[in-house]
TrEMBL record:
It comes from the Bacteria. Pfam families: T2SSF (PF00482). It is a multi-pass membrane protein. This is Type II secretion system F family protein. Keywords: Cell membrane, Membrane, Transmembrane, Transmembrane helix. It is found in: Cell membrane. The keyword DNA-binding does not apply. InterPro entries: T2SS_GspF_dom. GO terms for cellular component: plasma membrane. Residues 184-308 form the Type II secretion system protein GspF domain.
Length: 319
């Protein structure tokens, strides 16, 4: 009687796995049935434009090649449905687009949602492994285990969003650290007699970093037909740094009204350095308060115990 549960456990897990796979296959088959599938606008319009001239094959996107091409084509409809589901639940398309622009990435919102689906699938797998380990160790009920798996998937989706926000914050910190040097170089170039466009080209060509890359993108937009002020305004819109916004305003005023640009750039570089110094002092104050936590809750109780214990031992010996 004691051996039967131990031998029946692997068969029960195997049956549960087979049932899960069979249920997932039936669900996929039912979801893709024509009766349950919502007809898209493309499917409704396709019969009426079938006689139209096909586009050039040079304009078609390249089909995925390699050993996993068939798998990608099979998973494309499921991935598209998952992306639309995440878009309906999370929303915030404009916020995602803004953060991708701040990161300087060429990734579209749909690609980012697809990455969230992949991260969510990884979270589901991690949650399933954790649930299996908990079930094999303690034998928890099915409902908490299912909730654990779902929480793993949700954590994976939210982790990708948090990672994007973290990457944007780190990039803006690097841009803030680079801005005083770039502003000083621009001031030197302008003071040497170059114009605003020439100074930007020289600095973006000689420097390396996030801010110089944004300056190169700004110059590319200016060469494409936009004015320098509009291109710089696009730079300010792609970032959320007040120092860059003030830089754009100063350059715009100097270009439009002919005011001395070198003095404006030097003053802005000094303002950014002062702001960084204040941020460093504030960070030091927060770290000083955080250092009190181990002192008060760890070191001080141990010190009190070492101070009181000998007296208590002497009192016990006297008694």
């Amino acid at each position: 009687m004691a051996v039967a549960p131990a031998t029946a456990a692997p068969w029960s897990w195997a049956g549960a796995g087979l049932g899960l796979v069979a249920g997932l296959g039936l669900w996929l088959a039912l979801v893709r049935l024509p009766l349950l599938r919502r007809v898209s606008l493309e499917d409704r319009v396709a019969p009426y434009v079938r006689d139209a001239v096909p586009p050039s094959r040079l304009l078609r996107p390249e089909a995925p090649a390699g050993p996993l091409a068939a798998v990608e084509r099979m998973l494309a409809p499921v991935m598209a449905d998952a992306v639309r589901g995440i878009e309906r639940v999370l929303g915030g398309r404009a916020g995602v687009r803004t953060r991708l622009d701040q990161l300087g990435a060429t990734t579209s919102v749909e690609d980012f949602r697809a990455q969230q689906v992949v991260w969510g699938a990884g979270g589901l797998v991690a949650g399933a492994l954790l649930a299996g380990a908990v079930a094999s160790a303690r034998g928890v009920a099915v409902v908490p285990l299912a909730l654990l798996v779902l929480l793993g998937g949700a954590a994976g989706v939210l982790a990708r969003d948090w990672w994007l926000t973290r990457a944007v914050r780190r990039r803006e910190e690097r841009m803030t650290a680079e801005f005083p040097t770039v502003a000083e170089l621009l001031a030197l170039s302008v003071g040497a007699g170059e114009g605003a466009v020439g100074a930007l080209e020289r600095v973006s060509r000689t420097c390396a970093g996030e801010l110089s890359g944004e300056l190169r993108r700004t110059l590319a937009e200016a060469r494409a037909g936009a004015s320098l002020v509009q291109a710089l305004q696009g730079l300010a819109d792609r970032t959320s740094l007040p120092s860059l916004a003030r830089f754009v305003d100063g350059v715009a005023v100097a270009v439009e009204r002919g005011t001395p640009l070198a003095d404006v750039l030097r003053a802005q570089a000094q303002d950014v350095r002062d702001e960084g110094r204040r941020a460093l002092l504030e960070s030091g104050g927060r770290k000083e308060i955080a250092m009190m936590v181990p002192v008060v809750f760890l070191v001080l109780p141990i010190t009190v115990v070492f101070a009181v214990f000998p007296g208590l031992a002497v009192l016990r010996l006297d008694l």
